[in-house]
Amino acid sequence: MSYLVEVNHLKKYFPLKKGVFSRHKDFVCAVDNVSFGISKGETLGLVGESGCGKTTIGRTIMKLIEPTSGNAFFDSNNLFLLNPKKLREIRKKIALVFQDPYSSLNPRMQVRDIIAEPLTTHTDIKNSQLRDKVLELLSYVGMGKEHMMRYPHQFSGGQLQRISVARALALNPSFMVLDEPTSALDVSVQAQVLNLLADLQETFNLTYLFISHNLSVVEHISHRVAIMYLGRIVEMGPTKNIFANPLHPYAKALLSAVPNPDPDHQQEEVILTGDVPSPVNIPEGCRFHTRCNYKMPICQRIEPDLKEKEPGHEVACHLY
Amino acid sequence: MNRDNILLDIKDLHIEFSLYKSTLKAIRGISLTMHKGETLGLVGESGCGKSITASSIMQLIPCPPGKIVSGEIRFQGENLLIKNDNQMREIRGKTISMIFQDPMTSLNPVFSVGDQIKSVIKHHEKCSTTAALNKAAEMCSMVGLADPKSILKKYPHELSGGMCQRIMIAMALSCRPSLLIADEPTTALDVTVQAQILKLMRDLKKEINTSILLITHDLGVVAKTCEKVAVMYAGRIVEYGTLQHIFKNPQHPYTQGLLASTPKLGGDKNRLETIEGNVPDLTTQLNGCLFKPRCNAVNEKCAMESPGIKEVEQDHFLSCHLFNTVK
Predict the structure, then answer these.
(1) Structural domain tally of chain A?
(2) Is residue A230 domain-resident?
(3) pTM, full prediction
């Protein structure tokens, strides 16, 4: 199967400086050897707790931050090797929606200028054509003419996130990185935005990388899910398999920790002890062994790789 | 229910904030009763007045701009709103204590956590510094922190979010309060840590028999910890009842919408139900039912008068005109 987006052995280490003249540098291993692929029209959900490197992956693919090593292919172009001119061309096809709609829209620009900005930067449509295009984009996200002249502070969070989505759609992208698009929103509004994203995917055959810490949202919207822990993917597979039959002990604990809004729902609770280790001092061997309930001697020495357990369902654990 | 058993009784509370040009009516007539040993969940979306209700119990609303216009808050039979600062100081931390949303910012960064727990104990109980520190260490081990002696010497920035929240809980429970107000205690935490903290709160509640007022926007957290639930919308309580009433038999259109729009694990992958529109602007003059613009089942009465809160079955209260017409 060929993928639209493919990431191979991506690494991103952020250097930590200690003192002015210090030669020894520590590194924050934000993303450590991550590989995945997304086919056209598919949604890959990337979940994990805070600090596990989800956002860093999204931003590195966009080349908003330089990767330490690894490759990312989009439509068989290696994004990390392209010259700036080519990269600019390809950027039209990739769009990003940020987490916080209040801070990702310029407060001093009117909505029509916000949405028109990618169009004026990348294309040469002007005047009435531009206005029509902006109106068309607004109509995709359920907004209209009356909203064009307003400023971001005049909107609610849900409406602002719709404007961000409209801006992302401006150049007909084929791939969208959605970085926690609903975590700043209330549930009733979150449902509106999730439905909108699903509709747009169907209409434009979009490919999504959906980054979120909310497992129920990810289960709802994704076709496949990758679960991250401390910069690594520990389990990846079709949404159904992962949620019905999680294999990795971390995935099991994570899923059982999600509170279910049903008082009669009885579930076996796997409660992890301790906290996530610091990404500066990653434990040797399997990085989850400090909190794992099924720890074996081998886990402290050798780091497990992702292995296919069932068709399409991969897990990185010595138990399997 | 037995009247002696009532711990907290809020009657027709109205709170306003004066803004530059207008007045924001944040709380528009809340009445709420809590019994001893009960866990009550207060849910609603952001801006509906959950946290303000909680702060008003502790009299922590900044004044000005905030102002409690009318109503009363009775705690163990006494009206808290007529107490002066000194009297309130004796109550805060002793009989009512509070846990805030963000554990990293609600602890003082320039004092060690031991100092901070100790000062609460010393203020309320006449005891020596050593005795207070010993008590603090005891509380720390009660909330599941290993090696309490060394943790007490640490500063908040040396601890993780989950550990800070445990310290906050230890501090709040150190004087064995009769009421613990937890304002979004797990919102800033990751799910696995959230599960630890929720379990801790459930266990501690059994151990020291405190009533808990849990404020959250997460319906899953409510389903796991509470016995009673009050759903708030735009400064009013729209529905109030036991966990079973609210989750299994919701009557108010807003509660129904809220439950339907929450994605559930293992739920079907169909479209989510949505509540169209947005929360009303509370600075404007609003008449009738506040949920009317977003409601699917409006009748002519909704625009005219605001529905009062009525008991529809035992312990299940509802504020909606719809119920009268259906039955």
Answers:
(1) 2
(2) no
(3) 0.85
